[in-house]
Amino acid sequence: MLLKIKNILLVILAVTVTSCSEDFLDTKPTDAISAADALATAENMSLIINGMHRSLFTQSQTILPGGTGSTQRAGEHYWVPMGDNIAGGLLHSANANNLGWRNEMQWVSHTLPTSLTVRVFWYHRYNIIANANSIINKINEGSLTLDARLKEILAQAYTYRAYAYMSLVQHYAKGYLIGNPNTDPGVPLLFSTEAPFTSSPRSTVQEVYNQIFDDLEAAITTFNGASARSDKSQLNVNVAHGLKARAALNSGDWDKAIQAATAARNGYPLMSEAAWKSGFNTVALDEVIWGSVVIDTETTFFRSYFYLMSNTFNGSQVRNNPKFADRRLVDAIPNTDYRKDAFLNDAPNSNTSAANGQGGWANNVNPLYTTEAEFDAAISDLSSTWGWTSRHNTHPYMHVKMRQKTPGGILPDDIIYMRTSEMYLIEAEAKAMKNDVPGAQASLLPLASARDNAYDGSAFNTQETFLEHIKFQRGVELWGEGFLYVDKIRWDDGIDHGANGGSGASEILYQDAYVQDRPSVNDAWIFKIPQAEIDANPNLTPDDQN
């Protein structure tokens, strides 16, 4: 990867990484400053960190390869829900393809080396790594006094680099637990911040995970004595512990996962029922450990997380294609569990273009509505209750979990990346994998009993039954938050929308994605490396393509 630091933009102060192609070699905007100046003081480096924060939710513009097309992938607005979209958790009810969202669902984009998704995702993560390298290498030179402020900056840089490498290796390489990590090719490791910015060949999956854990340990140590963060878009020691818990769970280090998950949630109590039902639109919720505080003046509007998957957003992706949940999951939620209220099982199918052919009163199959007047009244009631417009379609099992602060509008709101609930689930799963079923039951109880006032986990008293229960609990608690893709790879679970009564997805709409074999025997789960990278990088050949 002939990675090159193009410039440090005064606008977002992010060190920019690109492939070494003619399109990117000679670009130097008049509002750029030198890397040396940007790294001269703690205050300047804090601006680079803030640019990294903003890169998680702003449109890419021309910073990343893809030109103006890269604006269709507004950072985590796209990448977070993509995990549920690809893995078949966030279901489409109709044929809409704004921003290529249908192509993701149909397993087209991530399997094409020339797609915008694999290209922008790859370079977005390496952009983060290059920013982090610049800060880490400069501070570790020792020319600056490592005071509390500089320690905070350095710790955040280590955490960001681990985050980016984990994201890359989990998408562009075979899953750790289903492969041979000591020999399976991972992704290139990049540490330089000076020309010629040539990466190494693909490191093994194990080597990449080793680097992830090294960076997180360095971050956790460095956060000791660092300045406190100003808001939840900044990274802190809890975020580092949370990423360590994720990496440990996905690599089978159960003890490390348990320890890190416990540390990550310290100080972030589980939220109440009212908070859980408030729309997941703000990082101010008690149990949110990390998330992007989206700035209204830099809003992405029709590129946002809420546009892609919230049924209250006023955009064509939502109005024409309400998103719904797997009915097998929703039907399994006990009535005593308030999370069931996030899914509208009996919403009328109002879309005459619905993929299942059951849209509109003439095709109604729900016996709850015996007249067209009842059918129409139910649609109107839902609109007034949840705040969407009369132009919005409805669909059985549609969700109202993610909702804007102002439903029916186009503001994007915050993006949540890490919550305390996930940490309880990681701890419980790791204990179950150690075959400590009583310990796993005890670890899950605080979360499960908080959500279900009649919760009784005693029936899940074997490793097999408890692990199936963990899949259910993660499916319900973390639905729509982007975890399902990595979860299925860890569990070696395939996709079958027709099994056990069916998910409700349309086979005609989902095509090849309707059934996908488990990841251990199906390399289509692995993202293709961008063809532009294969072409430009002397350390990668066509044989390196996934």
Please, could you describe this protein's structure?
There is one protein chain. With 546 residues, the protein is mainly alpha-helical. The chain is built from 21 helices and 13 strands. Strand 1 (4-9) and strand 2 form a beta hairpin. Helix 3 packs antiparallel against helix 6 (116-140), helix 3 (42-55) packs parallel to helix 7 and helix 9 (237-251) runs parallel beside helix 16. The longest helix has 25 residues, at 116-140. It is globular. The model is unreliable at 1-32 (pLDDT under 50).
Major sheet size, sense and barrel closure = 3 strands, antiparallel
Mean pLDDT: 89
The DSSP helix count reads 21
Low-confidence stretches: 1-32
| Secondary-structure class | mainly alpha
Share in helix: 40-55%
What is the count of β-strands?
13
- Give the terminus-to-terminus CA distance: 16 Å
Query: What is the 3D shape?
Result: globular
The strands making up the biggest β-sheet line up spatially as 2-1-3
Provide the β-strand percentage band: 5-15%
Radius of gyration: 23 Å
Q: Which descriptors would you attach to this protein?
A:
disordered N terminus, mainly alpha, 8% strand, 42% helix, two-stranded antiparallel sheet, 21 helices, three-stranded antiparallel β-sheet, 546 residues
The gist of it:
The protein has 546 residues and is mainly α. Helices cover 42% and strands 8% of the residues.
SSE map:
Layout: E1 4-9, E2 15-18, H1 22-25, E3 32-33, H2 35-38, H3 42-55, H4 76-87, E4 91-92, H5 101-105, H6 116-140, H7 148-171, E5 185-188, E6 202-204, H8 205-223, H9 237-251, H10 254-264, H11 273-276, E7 288-292, H12 305-309, H13 316-319, E8 323-324, H14 327-331, E9 343-344, H15 372-386, E10 398-399, E11 415-419, H16 420-433, H17 437-451, H18 463-477, H19 484-491, E12 495-496, H20 507-510, E13 515-516, H21 531-536
Antiparallel strand pairs: 1-2, 1-3, 4-8, 5-6, 7-11, 9-10, 12-13
